[in-house]
Design brief:
331 residues, alpha+beta, Fumarylacetoacetate hydrolase, domain 2, 6-stranded antiparallel β-sheet
Length: 331
């Protein structure tokens, strides 16, 4: 049974991650507020999703206009100076890849350039010379104000909100970029995020689900699987790195990250936060690649180890759903 964080604070201290919280932070207490950035008439506008009343589900722009939220094109609701990602922060992912519930003694990180950002409903580009493009459904933590040298308990006050995100990866570059992950995770369009930036939702009572062509291929209850919460990660990073308003921290993915193909629709839904989607589109290989410039995409045992994962260590339903998702596209 999942934990109920509306119960007395003593129950919060049973959360199974580093530095359990004793009370629900303000950023996770209601009311729920969701901010979105939309294209209207060719211009970008911020607005707030209406939560109640006859216009519930519509977007009220800051200039007062109320629009059909479903009919809009959304831009990423963030403008980061940097994007930092945790390698592994879910117990099921650690078990699949490391065969233990905690991957390392403390979290490890990589970065993605801001040019990897992509809006909800956008195209996720897969170059023709890359075989493996893996999905990873995640939630993103967005920093609200300058943060440096804080404790885990203090870190909550520096969070503006949370977003669903897809941390996509071109695994054929893993041989050369294993340490930096630069081209694996940093290529253009590989970070769909949004559609909104949400606060006032109890993150640890939410469930993350990733879909391929409408079928669930990843699922985790965030409170049950978290190894290091966002407060721990922020405090760790801010020991040496100044985080500023708009910066994004990606909090890792559960088990069963697998490759997708052109035409696949990939979505990450987090209950209480929303659902972000992108469609995989094939593009031509870069022109410089044909001239032998740089390290070429490879298909080695190490590449396949990460791209294909360990099917014997993940739930059967995820494997079956992914197989069905691939068949449904062919059909």
């Amino acid at each position: 049974m999942h934990r109920d964080l509306s119960t007395p604070p003593t129950d919060l201290r049973t959360m199974n991650f580093e530095f359990p919280i004793s009370e629900l932070p303000a950023v996770m207490r209601g009311p729920r507020v969701e901010r979105r950035r939309a294209l209207v008439g060719g211009s970008a506008f911020w607005g707030t999703l209406i939560e109640e009343g006859p216009d519930a589900g519509r977007l009220q722009l800051d200039d007062g206009r109320v629009l059909d939220a479903q009919a809009l094109t959304y831009l990423p609701p963030v403008n980061p100076s940097k994007i930092i990602a945790v390698h592994i922060s879910y117990s099921s992912r650690s078990y699949e890849t490391r065969q233990k519930s905690k991957p390392t003694e403390s979290p490890t990180y990589f970065t993605k350039p801001p040019t990897s950002l992509n809006g909800h409903g956008g195209q996720i580009l897969k170059p023709a010379d890359c075989q493996y493009l893996n999905y990873e459904g995640e939630y993103a933590v967005v920093i609200g104000k300058t943060c440096r040298n804080v404790t885990p308990d203090e870190a909550w006050d520096y969070i503006e909100g949370f977003c669903p995100a897809l941390d996509m990866g071109l695994q054929n570059f893993r041989d050369t970029d294993q340490g930096s992950m630069l081209r694996v995770k940093g290529a253009d369009t590989l970070l769909p995020i949004g559609p909104g930036l949400v606060r006032g939702v109890n993150l640890f009572e939410q469930t993350l689900r990733t879909y391929v062509n409408g079928l669930v291929v990843q699922e985790a209850h965030i409170g049950d699987e978290t190894i290091w919460g966002p407060h721990y990660v922020i405090a760790d990073l801010a020991r040496h790195i100044t985080l500023v308003a708009g910066d994004v921290i990606l909090m890792g993915t559960p088990c069963h990250s697998r490759s997708v193909d052109p035409g696949d629709v990939v979505e990450c839904e987090i209950t209480g936060l929303g659902r972000v989607a992108g469609t995989v589109v094939e593009i031509a290989a870069p022109r410089a690649s044909a001239l032998g410039v740089g390290h070429q995409p490879t298909d080695t045992a190490e590449v396949r180890r990460v791209a294909l994962g360990f099917d014997e260590r993940v739930p059967d339903r995820f494997k079956q759903n992914l197989a069905d998702a691939r068949k449904s596209k062919k059909g």
